[in-house]
Every structure is written in structure tokens, then in C-alpha cells.
Amino acid sequence: MATTEQVMQALRRVIDPELGRDIVSLGMVRDVRVEGDRVSLTVVLTTPACPLTERIEAEVRAALQALPGVREVDLRMSAQVPAHARLQGIEGLAFKNILAVGSGKGGVGKSTVAVNLAVALAGMGAVVGLMDADVYGPNIPEMMGVRRIPAPRDNKIIPAVAYGVRVMSMGFLLPPDQPVIWRGPMLHSAVRQFLTDVDWGMLDYLVVDLPPGTGDVAISLAQLVPLTGAVVVTTPQAVSLSDVGRAVEMFRRLEVPVLGVVENMSGFVCPHCGRETAIFGEDGGRQLAERMGVPFLGRIPLDPRVREGGDAGRPLVIAHPDSPAAQAMRDIARQIAARISVLNLSEPAPSGAPPAR
Ligand SMILES: Nc1ncnc2c1ncn2[C@@H]1O[C@H](COP(=O)(O)OP(=O)(O)OP(=O)(O)O)[C@@H](O)[C@H]1O
Is the C-beta atom of 99 inside 6 A of ligand 1? Predict the structure, then answer.
């Protein structure tokens, strides 16, 4: 019969490739029990959206089955998302991570990416909120198929829930089709209210859909709370790419780590002949990401079903989960979750974090 010490020793050889350390020293191995020739244990990953779950699971089984005296491995995989160090202990906030989705200019599919990212992460088992901070054109309610929020409770705004995601938008509070002229201080207090007056509950990830460009909302958000990171969405053509450079630069100045660039509307796959046409150019996002020294997270093809799903309030990852665009979105969601884990586990907790002002 193997000893618990031998089991732990064997598991020290299983390295989390993303984090570059063994799963024992990362604290991922729990509840190890050896009973005769049977070993039972739980491996706690740093995100339910881990892109390497199957690989780690296979390596754990192989490592244990190679031990003399082990015939059966009862392995449970679970996940616990680590909190961003600077977000811990801020009174009244229960977010483990805040992720901003931005773009250099409008119409590149930023809200579409934010929606599908949030729904994909929730579908993988994470607790997710989606905050529509695009106050100039709040279209998240429509894209998520929700019209209103529940009545407030205990002086707190209650978010709507759609596809397992808690959703809040200025669109729920404003009369439809009436433009609002936002001034800087009003924007700042609206963003603060969305962070502190909404009963989000404990969230693994709060995804924030920013307005396009490099304006006041992003600045307010970054001043109010420490963001875990930002994702910048672009289309592959040159005009959009120079805009994305500005967006990346803005996040850098705000000291928000850029988790990567997403290239949306990349190529169009003809539904008749299956040939791909690069309508907006080719591979520009990857080249730009390389030039700017930020990760490239992937390409989402142009697919009419993306727009149809958006208009019908059914995000593509729900409406057509097997389509190449939905697969790309899920893959991007996994990569983002993995990068957040890497950032959180490599960053030491600072001595004090600023409260939301
Ligand atoms: N990959 C795609 N294939 C087809 N249509 C897409 C794709 N991505 C987005 N769209 C469509 O493009 C339009 C613009 O997308 P979206 O509203 O997400 O952009 P945005 O960058 O958030 O724009 P803005 O910030 O200006 O509101 C929408 O009709 C959306 O459904």
C-alpha cells in the first residue's frame, strides 16, 4: 500500500504548465486518502475555465497509477478562483476579479465579446457578473434578452440574471430611446453606484463592458477599483488597429494589465462553398499584439449568426455553441481565465488597497 507521503511526492511531479509550478506547492491537492489499493483526492484548479483541466487530470492519474500498490484512483476535479490581491479586503466589494473589455473605436464587437465571454465563463461553472458601463449605448440588456431588473431590496439594486450571469446596465434605469448627456462627475458617480450599490454577491469575475475609445468611464473605473486586467477588441483592418494601440496605451497608463487583444470579424466562411475570405484583412490583430508586446488571445470569425443572436437576446455560445465563432469565444474565455490565475498567483498582496471612492 502506498503512503500519503508517496502520493504527495508523486504529485509534486505534476506541473501546472500555465503557472509553471507543481500542483502540490500550489496548494491544489486536497483530501488525499489512501485505503488499500485505492487513492482518493481532490484537485482544486484556479478556474473552472482552465484550458488544461484534461491534461492535468490525465497527468495526476498517470502519476498515481505508476505508484506500486495503487490500482484505483478516485479523482475529483474542482476549482476555486483566486482573488486579485489588490481587490481583497475592500469593504463592500465582493469581486475576486474585475475584467474590463475595451476597444479603440465603436462597432468592432466589444459588447458581443463581453457578453459571450461572461456567458461562456458562467457556463464553465464560474460565478460571473456583467456590468454594462457603455453608458452612451447600453445594449447589453438586449443582447442578454433581459428587459428589467427586480425591485430593489435593502436599498440595493438587484441585478437581472440571464444565462447564469448577473447583469446590470444603465439601460435598465434610463427611459428607452432618450439620449443622456453625461458629464464627467455624473459618469464617475454612475460607475461608483454600479460597483457599490448593486447587490452582485460574491463574484469570481465581474466583466465590464466599457464604452468604445479612451474616455472617462475607463478612467473612473480604474480610479475606483483595482482592475485585474483588460481585454482589447479590434477588427483586423488598419484603422481599427491604430485605435487599439491607443486603447492598449490607455490601460498601461492606468496601470491596468492588458490580458490581450481579441481580433473579431476576422474572416468570413462562405456557408455555400466553405471558403474563407479575409474581408477586413488578415492577422492584423496578432501582428499588432506582437508589436505592442501584449498577448494575442485569438480570432473570432465573421458569422451572421452572431448578429442574429445578439438581436434576439441569445448570445452565440448559447444559440450555436458548436459554431466556429462560439468555439473561438470559449477558447478566448479559457485563455483569459488562465491569464488571470497566473497574474493573481504571481502578484504578492500589497499592504493596503484603496477603497472605492
Ligand atoms: N463576429 C461577428 N460576426 C458577425 N457580426 C458580429 C460579430 N461581432 C459583432 N457583430 C455584430 O456587429 C455589431 C456591433 O457589435 P457590438 O455592438 O458588439 O460592437 P461594439 O464594439 O460593442 O459597438 P459599440 O461599443 O459602438 O456599441 C452588432 O450587430 C453585432 O451583432
Answer: no
